[in-house]
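Here is one chain, start to finish.
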Amino acid sequence: MPDYMMDHLIRVYGLKKIAHKALCQIIPTLEDLNHRRNSWGILLSRLIQVIHHDPIPHQLALFLTKARIEFNKLVANAVKDIKTRKRETVTGQADKEGSAFLIDVMNLVYNLFDTDRGSRGKAISLLKPESFTPEQFMVFRICHKIIRMGETAENVFSVFDVDRKNNEITRDQLIDGVRKILELAMPDDEASILFNVLDPKNAGRISRDTFLQKIDIKSHYEHCKSLNFTVKKSKFWMVLIEVYKTVQIKDTALLMAWFNAQGVTHLDFDGFKNYALSIDDDIEIEEIQSHYDDGLRLNSDASLDGLTQESFCKVIIRESIGGRGSRDFKLKSGAMTMRSVSRKNSDLNTSQDDIQPPSKAKHSRRPSGLITPPPQRSRTPTLDISPTMHKKKSSFSGLPPISSSKVPIPRSRDTPRSPEFPSSQTPEPRLSDFATEPRQSDGTLKITREPRSPNEPKSPRFGWKKSREFDNFLNN
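Its structure:
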């Protein structure tokens, strides 16, 4: 199980013991879902790397998490659109299943695979709804691409018609136009299906009228927001997983072909370094050395003479050197890698002339112009007052309101001063300087009270006699 799964449970439940208990309840549920062949149960088992024999690697799990966030936005838009069209009967079902419109999911695939056209075409071809025939889906893809380009079917046919003689295009012109101009990755079998749709009479050529009749942009708009053409979240994830496996298989085959072309059984460090620099311009020498050492540990024959073909392919694919094995599946901004850490450390290095000497700045290595002098310490001893005390009203009416959390400590004039505080300094204010109440001979405040009238009610706690004795105690 990956570490992020356990970290998530601990953040949710707060205690590690409770998190383990929740995990023990999750595992049997996932086993039951796998036994029932539930798509979501199988997918979650692969994601947290339990029960299923084919776990999802960490890099793909991060990519799926990013894609899930974007897909949830499409689901919310689909539910909102359904409510707008007054179809409350299917709103709950669409929200529960987590389905989005096919046209929106295809646009998301274009954003996720913006540079890898092969992965993009593979993903879109796997998104075909069950209600679509292969012929209809091919026409749907072409109409969608024409709309994304901002063109019309008439202009596209004019570009396909290189000869411009009889307003007809051949099979080769159609396939070249779809692959090069529309930039759609189309295998030969799909190209044959498309040509049969546009040339039902097997004439070998496609007329302009037939092309415009089949590639109908208006009917495409009618099917864009149809409830029959939706994609579930589980299917979308399975498509991305399948595309990831296809990318790794293709890149592994290319790496094996390159290794065989070298004519060696073990690739030394210089050969590995030259190949890594040829496919990745930003990689550092220290990083190459680290990957090479990891590859030596993966050698099946425990040899230290160089990397075998198997360990070479594993290191390149696992570390995604030059994007091999990941391509657009590698997140643009993610966890700190060795490369980013080395760049960060290099940016922090400054010249010795711009650094303060240790005697002047012991805790900082910033340039001298950016060093902030430490705040001057107050020479007046202060006393912290709790914020709750501020809310109480002082019984001495002559004292000013307290406006700060720290006030000077009262000091008698007879108290000798410390050598740290020179006598020429202005003396601290005393508590007696603020008082305006009459004082006794010892300097303490004298609390006076008006004589109690006979009709004045007695104290609730003491009788009249007890209250008078208490007043006399305070005055004396």
